Amino acid sequence: MKPLNNLMRKLVAAFLAVGLASSAMAFDLDSDQPITVSADNARLDDGQGIATYTGAVELAQGNTRLTAERVVLYRSAEGLNRIEANGSPARYQQPVVGGEGETDARARNIVWSATDKQLIFERGAVIEQNGNIFRGDIIRYDTEQRVVTAEGGENSGGGSGRVEMIIQPRGNSSGSTQ
Question: Where is the signal peptide (predicted)?
């Protein structure tokens, strides 16, 4: 069983390294491009450094997009340090760096933490990239160590409850990320 676990780790790392490594910061806080936010409602608590957006929320920076029903931005003295998005599902999209296509990730909860150096997709996580698909109840990406971990969930009748991957043959680039 251990060789299969090692193989699975290598496959997961190979599949996600390109997409999530480019997504490691979710939004590039060192970029000259601003992050724009639009929503139906906003509540800004400057004293706490918390901005809460609800209703068809859209965050964008260049070609990187996050859409959700609710997004909370946390700011410290150093600047933006955490983004929490919730939706049915929340969706994160970013072009693949140095390649064609885009990373398209969906989950009920998406959390980016600069402090923890983590990008987390929770509750029904699906990540697609060039026809490759990775599913799990929770998918975590350590942006510093570049390590991906995934957990299955309970079998609720909508799937096996296990972590699942579909990896396209090398020459197949016809995958869609819809």
Answer: 1-26
Phi, psi of 99 (to 5 degrees): -155, -175
Q: In angstroms, rounded to a whole number, what is the distance separating the alpha carbons of residues 128 and 132?
A: 6
Answer for the pair 88, 109: CB distance below 8 angstroms, yes or no.
no
CATH number of the domain at 2-166, out of 3.40.50.300, 3.40.50.2000, 2.60.450.10, 3.30.70.890?
2.60.450.10
What pLDDT digit, counting tens, does each position of 125-144 carry? 988 888 888 888 998 888 77
Q: What is the pLDDT of residues 68-112, one digit of tens each?
A: 999 999 998 888 889 999 999 999 988 876 667 788 889 999 998
The half-sphere exposure of 20 on its side-chain side, counting CA atoms within 13 A, is 28
